[in-house]
Each structure stands twice: as C-alpha cells, then as structure tokens.
User: What shape does this take?
Amino acid sequence: MRAGAGAHRVSTAHLQAAYPFVSEGGLGGEGVYIGREVLGGAFCYDPWVLYRRGVLTNPNMLVAGQVGRGKSSFVKTYLWRQQVFGRRAWIIDPKGEYGPLAAACGIDPIRIGPGLPVRLNPLAPTAETVDRAAVDRAAVDRRRISLLTSLAASSLGRTLQPEEQTAVELAVTTAAGTHGDELVLPQVVDALLWPDDDTAAQVASDADAFAQAGRQVALELRRLCQGDLAGMFDGPTTAGIDLDAPVVVLDLSALYGSDALGLLMLCATAWLQASLQAHDHEDRLILVIDEAWAILRHLEIARWLQASWKLSRQYGVANIAVVHRLSDLTAAGAHGSEQVALAQGLLADSETRVVYGQSPAETDRATDLLGLTDVEADILSELGRGVGLWRVGARSFLVEHVLGHTTERVIVDTDARMG
Ligand SMILES: Nc1ncnc2c1ncn2[C@@H]1O[C@H](COP(=O)(O)OP(=O)(O)O)[C@@H](O)[C@H]1O
Ligand SMILES: [Mg+2]
Assistant: This one.
C-alpha cells in the first residue's frame, strides 16, 4: 500500500497532540468521497454543499505540495467522482496529463500549441453568447483591457506606465468600436502601433507621440501574433469546441518548460473566463489551473487571476489552483509587498486549502500563511504521497486520498498517458 506508507510515518502520539484531527466530527457524508481521515472515517467533500451549509463562504480550493505527492492525481479523481453528480470541469493542463481523464469521459483534450490547428480568442465573448443585448459592452472592454495589461506587464517584467496603460485602453476601445465581438489581438496591436489622430487627441497627444507611448506594449503583444507564439490566441476561436462536454481540457504541454507558459496559461484562462458568460449555469462547474505557479510568479497575472476568481463567483464556479509551495504565491515579493498581499488575498479567496508534503524549508511560510498550529506545521514535512492536510475554513483534517478501481488508476497514471 504505497499510498498509506506516508501516513504511518507520522506517529500516533504525534497526531494525538494534533487536537483538531482527533476531535473533529468530520464534514459529514455529503459530497464526493475523497478518502479516509488518517484518524477517522471516510472523508467526503463538496464545496457547494459546504457553502450551502455555511461551512465555507467561497467554493475555491488551493492545492499545494512538492512534485510527485499526488496533487494532480487527487484533482483528477475528484473531478471524475464529481461527474456522478453532474458537475463539469474546465481544466488548464500545462503538462498534458489530463488526457486519460478526458478519455474516460469520452472526449479529446484540446491541444494548443505552435502549428496546431486550434485557436482561442481570449478577447471575444463566445459566438453563442446567450443574449447579445444583455452583454455589457463596457464590461467586455474592461476585461479585455485588464487581460492585455497583465499580458504586457508580465512580459515586460514591470508595471505599465500611466501613458502605456492609457494607450492600451484607447487601443482596445477604438478597435472594439470597429470590430465589436470579432475583435482579435492583431487588431489591438495595430491600433497601438498606428493610433489615429482622433484617438490621440482624446488625451491631448498626437498620433506620433501616442504611438511612441504604446510602442513597447505593442511589441510585446505582437509576440503572440508573430513568430514563436503565433497562431494560438491571435484569431477567431476555432469552430466546434464543445464547452458543454463533461470535461474540457486545454492541453498546453507543447510549450511546457517555455518561458511563455505563464502568458499562454493566462490567455487560455481568460478565454475560459470569457466563455462563462455564454455557458449554461445549471450545472456546477469546476475550473482547474494545474501548475498554477507558472501564473502566480508573475505579479500582474496573479492580480488578474484574483480578480477573475472574484468575478467567477457570480457564475457559481469552484476554482482550483495547484501549486508546489505556498511561497510560489509570494515568490516575487518582500514582506509587506503587494505580492504578499495578493497571496493572502488569493488564500482568503480559497477557503479550502489542501497541503501535501512540503520541504522543511517551506513549513514556516506555510504555517504563516495558513495559520497552522505547531503540530500541523511539523506534520507538513512528514506527509507521504497521497496524504494531505485539509484546511476547510477554520477546520483541519488529515486525509489519505484513496484511489479507486482500474479506471481511476488509469486516470492518474502519469506514465501511461497518451501522447
Ligand atoms: N493516493 C495515491 N495512491 C497511490 N498512488 C498515487 C496516489 N496519488 C498519486 N499517486 C501516484 O503518484 C504519481 C505522482 O502523482 P501526481 O499526482 O502526478 O503528483 P503531483 O501532481 O503532486 O506532482 C502518479 O503517477 C500516481 O500514480
Ligand atoms: Mg501535478
């Protein structure tokens, strides 16, 4: 029993000092089966049920743990088990490992990469937007502006200057005025590179000076339209993508390991977020970002993500972000910095935190950010594969994730994944 081995590394005496684990009555039997509590019975979980019962005030989850601890395996089987309840999932899959889950649900992952046929347009509401008249145009433009600002800033490695910010705003509103729902990235880049006099006059500038102000941003964004990153997010969304499938997997593995991964994950997530408007909200939806550290290490993207989590709440979406270490959230920031504040905000917005094994060097940060007891902190570096410390609101559970029958073994087996 490989999975259980780690649990026994924590001595019982040690655990009994961990008052919450022993005294907890559990979360009840509602929700999907996750596994067993190391010192208790079956552990079940469903964010919407707990939300309804007032145990949680938000349905989002953060999963942290060292490589190979079973984070992705947990998420995959969790999504699989949620299928029974009609919950659906949209997944950002940077390593291309959700193929077996998709196959078990009878669908193909959508592969995005240079030279591959699928394009997603992160600037457009999806074609089948339910009620066009009801779409708030200004809100659509604000979403576009915040996406492009985050893309440019993270790609430049700095916050945009006020005049750059203004250039993006005016380029989007001008280009959107012409192209509407069909707006695509190259049109915004053109509007930045060649602003017209009327646009520039809105901020007491002329076309040449204003073009200069927006030039660096334009050149960064142009990277997604020309050259190495072209062909993925720079045109209308490819027809025939079925967002009503039980799972939608966006496989970005073609660029896993590239420095552009964070940008591509941002574009893909933005496309999914935009698609929420067009989607039928009867079914509960889980939106997963695996390997989310690639997004969170960029301050600008982390900020965008936090805002988008807040927005997705109105659609009843439960977000899941998977990271290695909690310090992934604060990597770029000194104590008291905006990065740290953002990390704390994201944590506050994910009231369910599942922490798998952490290196001893990480436990201080984790203890700090999660408000763990000393005993919980000690346990973090001793957890074996498949065993996680669950913080659900203010309550703690030590849970061994139990894998089911053959299908689940196939779904989590990272070696047997399809190419
Ligand atoms: N609860 C578990 N029981 C048994 N094996 C597991 C369990 N969780 C994960 N594994 C195995 O461990 C390997 C690594 O797990 P994975 O979920 O990819 O780790 P991570 O996402 O944390 O890097 C997988 O190939 C899987 O087969
Ligand atoms: Mg993983």
Observations:
- The chain has two domains: 2-116+232-412, 132-229.
- The pocket of magnesium ion (ligand 2) is lined by residues 71-72, 290 (CB under 6 Å).
- The radius of gyration is 22 Å.
- The CA atoms of residues 265 and 353 lie 22 Å apart.
